[in-house]
Every structure is written in structure tokens, then in C-alpha cells.
Amino acid sequence: MPSSPVLFLAVPAADGTTTFTPADALAPQLRVDDLGATRGDGVFESVAVVGGTPQGLAHHLDRFARSAALLDLPAPDTAAWADAVHRAAAAHEPRPELLAKLVLTRGVEGSGVPTGWVHVFPGADHTEQRTAGIDVLALERAYPSDVVVRAPWLLQGAKTLSYALNTAALRYARAHGAHDVVFVSTDGDVLEGPNSTVLARFADRWVTPPPELGILDGTTQARAFAWARGRGDRTEVARLGVDDLKTADALWLLSSGRLSAPVRSLDGVPRPTDAALQAELLHHLLTVAD
Ligand code: PLP
């Protein structure tokens, strides 16, 4: 029997605070003139809920607030959103892994009132990709590495609802026999996946590209770095080229839903994976919440 998803709707007050009320997740709730639906004008976060506990929630809420600021949306009432995530996760039938999706849109056109909700539901089953690994293509993202300063209106680095490009890149990968994508800037910087962060291991050094390149600061990556430091390894936020990915000892794509997926091929060329390290990393991500 599939379990029912849980929905809490945000009710913003004039003083900037927000309350959340439960609603039917299987019934229509959004107006057709909501700018989140018509323009993708809004921000979101997907938070892993493992064993009932939201993972990296403070980091997610931080990023949610930063994304909202980049879009000139009202600052989310962070304490109220945190409370709603906990309440919605607790209201869902227990599952080993769930996802909590937090959405804040510019609201119904002309209203000036944002629309928000927290939706908790079972995510996809990632067992296969976590264990067998993934085939990845490096694809052009068609912006330069200094996009954030050159063209801030492109909103790179904000987690907006405009993900049509991201899903198109994933469809392109699948149509070409791969599972996933690593985006590359016009000047050759490795950026991020359409919904993941790149992690490369060079001996005992773990490297991820910097958010200054117009990419998200990954919450899963931050938790993976904490794990790596805990085992005595070095962690570094540094620029990488595609050639660096080719010489890394191992590569992963990290994200809240799938957690860690080892990259077993890049552009059709097999890559070494490390099953023991993947098991250790995944165990950490599944058992340590922050
Ligand atoms: N980069 C992009 C574009 C994403 O959409 C995501 C997650 O959905 C990530 C990186 C990984 O972030 P996190 O680990 O916080 O889920």
C-alpha cells in the first residue's frame, strides 16, 4: 500500500511570520495564476528525511533564505519552516527514507503574497545507482565561470523553481546512454550536476568546486566533507577541470535524495569506483544528520 504524502501550507502574516496548516496533498492546492507555476518564479529545497530526521536542515534553510534573497522574495520565517518540516516528517507514515520539499513562490500574480508549502513524500529508490554507480556525461553549461558577477540576473547559485533546463540535460544524458551530467563552464571549469554536487577524491584529498562559480553549496557535500575530515583526510573547495576528473582516484555525485552515487564512467570512459569508501560514506550520510 503506498503511503499518503503529507502537505503543510504556509500562511504568511503581515509581520513576516508564517504559520503552517495541514492540507490534503492529493487534492489541488495551487492557483493556475501562481507565478511559481506560470514562470517558475520561486525557490525550493529538497531535504532528505532519514529515519524520521531531516538531514542538514539548518544548511538547507540557510540556502533557502539565500535563494529567496537572490530573487527578492520575502525572507522565509526560518523557525516556522523548520518546525513545519519536523511536523510534516512526523506526520508521515514511517519510512527509512523520505523527502521533504520546501517551496516558496512569488505567489498569485498581482497579489504580492508569496505561496509556500512543505511536502513530505517517499523519494525514488536509489539503491541501484548507489551500489552499481552511474554513467555521467560532461556537458556544456554555456556560461563563464564568473557568471555570478557578470550576470547576476541569471540567478546562478539560487535554487530556483526553473529546473526545465536541468531536467532537459538529464533527459539528454539518458537519451545518450548515461544516467547523469556534470556541467562545465565555457572556460573549462567543472561546475555541478543538474541536481547534484561533484566530489572528487585524489588520494586522501577530497575536492569540490567552489560556489563562486555560480553553483549551489551542497548540503550533502558539506556532510561528506565532515565525514572525510573525521577519517583524517583533507578537504578542499577548489576549481577542477574535466582533465582533473579524469585523473581523480574516484568521483561521486552527491545530492539530498540519492545521497552519494559513485561515477563509474565519464563520457563513456570507465572510471575506478571504491565500493568500500562508498559504503562508508553512504553509511555516514544515512546515520549522521548534520
Ligand atoms: N546542485 C544542484 C543544481 C542541485 O539541484 C542540487 C540538489 O538538488 C545539488 C547541487 C546538491 O545539493 P544538496 O546536496 O544540498 O541536495
TrEMBL record:
**InterPro entries assigned:** Aminotrans_IV (IPR001544), Aminotransferase-like (IPR036038), BCAT-like_C (IPR043132), BCAT-like_N (IPR043131), Class-IV_PLP-Dep_Aminotrnsfr (IPR050571)
Q: What is its EC number?
A: 4.1.3.38
An example GO BP is: carboxylic acid biosynthetic process
Q: What class does this enzyme belong to in the EC scheme?
A: lyase
Q: Does the keyword Transcription regulation apply?
A: no
Cellular component terms per the entry's GO annotation: cytosol
Q: Which UniProt keywords apply?
A: Lyase
Source superkingdom: Bacteria
Extract the GO molecular function terms from the UniProt entry: 4-amino-4-deoxychorismate lyase activity
Lyase as UniProt keyword: yes
Tell me where the transmembrane regions lie: none
Coiled-coil stretches: none
Give the similarity note. Belongs to the class-IV pyridoxal-phosphate-dependent aminotransferase family.
Name of the protein in its database record: 4-amino-4-deoxychorismate lyase
